[in-house]
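Sequence design from tokenized structure. All designs in this work follow the same two-part layout: the structure record, then the generated sequence. An example of the structure record is given first.
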């Protein structure tokens, strides 16, 4: 008899956001409590619906409206919860160090997300420089406070992404939302907007483009008088300007630049676990290429760029893709415990981009070209769908209905 079916396994999941919660609840659905102990380790005590952070900046939502407390939610699902940050991982000994204590595991899921490498652009800040970002709840709140001050004394604005960025969508959303908000206040004529991006063309998104997104975005920016520069590298942000590599200076009183992402410190402190940038190499089933009991999902996964561009643009991992990865990893862990076929379906991407007065739905399946299907649709109904989906998905995460 295979003793692995009698043993009570320990699964530790690092991260309490999209990937971590999806993996935890999916594993609890697939495996009974008597068979598996599941523990989520999260540095934050709340889940935040990160795609709504631009709305927090614009004042449409508060952090409380897009979040919930993790511990009561996980306890209700019979899932353990440790609030703390993983310090390092010893994959050879199957241990994670959290708060100076060793946590043993039989299976590990790394869903730690990212570290924003704001230091890549001098002046990006936002807490030690004049630039702003949308990559964390605190940064979104800070960017919102600065936006409200900006409205009292408007002027030129620069929105965009730094070289090596991968999470490009929020920059596009903020550009459209700012344009719409200023027009409603009849202030748009006071605010020249420039969009800067390392992408070789608008709508590249780090995935080589998505159908007619390039033509659509170019037309929308031109219609809205949003000037744009592609294949540019932001080199410095000051109180009054954004400097580009090559010496060009763009005047700006409000600069929101999405930074490149790096792996979290715990991966960097764990030799053999990640690549030089701190991301985890996996197979198509999101299992580590060397350690069979280690999985990674979401931003923590080390995907290579889709193509080589004049200025680096990295591959994105959206919340929608992260959920797919987490379900695949959970299925494969359950298969490893109970026996069964592994799954390796490549993720696809479905996103809705807020444009202020309407929204664009974009789908690419799979996300890396060549693709079986590409779709794009624009209209007010997609804005309503996005507004409705945010609280619905947050409720699903809170109640474990993944």
């Amino acid at each position: 008899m295979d003793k692995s079916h009698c043993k009570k396994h320990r699964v530790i999941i690092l991260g309490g956001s999209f990937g971590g919660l999806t993996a935890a609840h999916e594993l609890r659905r697939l495996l009974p409590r008597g068979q598996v102990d599941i523990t989520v380790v999260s540095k934050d005590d709340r889940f935040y619906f990160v795609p709504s952070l631009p709305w927090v900046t614009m004042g449409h939502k508060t952090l409380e409206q897009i979040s919930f407390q993790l511990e009561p939610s996980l306890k209700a699902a019979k899932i353990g919860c440790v609030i703390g940050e993983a310090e390092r991982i010893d994959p050879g000994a199957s241990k994670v160090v959290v708060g100076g204590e060793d946590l043993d595991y039989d299976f590990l899921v790394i869903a730690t997300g990212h570290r924003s490498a704001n230091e890549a652009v001098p002046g990006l800040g936002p807490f030690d420089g004049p630039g702003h970002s949308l990559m964390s709840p605190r940064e979104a709140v800070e960017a919102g406070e600065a936006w409200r001050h900006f409205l009292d004394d408007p002027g030129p604005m620069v929105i965009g992404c730094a070289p090596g960025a991968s999470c490009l969508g929020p920059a596009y959303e903020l550009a459209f939302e700012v344009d719409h908000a200023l027009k409603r206040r009849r202030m748009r004529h006071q605010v020249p907007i420039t969009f800067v991006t390392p992408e070789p063309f608008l709508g590249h998104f780090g995935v080589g483009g998505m159908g007619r997104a390039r033509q659509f975005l170019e037309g929308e920016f031109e219609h809205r008088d949003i000037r744009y520069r592609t294949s540019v590298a932001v080199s410095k942000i000051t109180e009054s300007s954004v400097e580009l590599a090559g010496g060009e200076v763009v005047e700006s009183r409000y600069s929101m630049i999405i930074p490149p992402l790096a792996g979290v410190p715990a991966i960097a402190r764990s030799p053999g676990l990640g690549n030089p940038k701190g991301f985890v190499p996996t197979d198509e089933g999101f299992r580590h290429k060397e350690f069979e009991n280690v999985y990674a999902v979401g931003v923590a996964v080390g995907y290579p760029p889709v193509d080589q561009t004049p200025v680096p643009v990295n591959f994105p991992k959206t919340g929608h893709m992260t959920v797919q990865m987490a379900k695949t990893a959970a299925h494969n862990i359950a298969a490893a415990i109970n026996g069964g076929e592994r799954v390796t379906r490549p993720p696809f991407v479905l996103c809705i981009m807020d444009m202020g007065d309407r929204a664009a739905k974009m789908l690419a399946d799979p996300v890396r070209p060549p693709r079986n299907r590409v779709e794009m649709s624009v209209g007010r109904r997609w804005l309503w769908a996005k507004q409705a989906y945010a609280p619905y998905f947050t409720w699903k995460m809170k109640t474990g209905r993944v």
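The two ends are 33 Å apart (CA to CA). We note this feature because it recurs in several other targets discussed in the main text.
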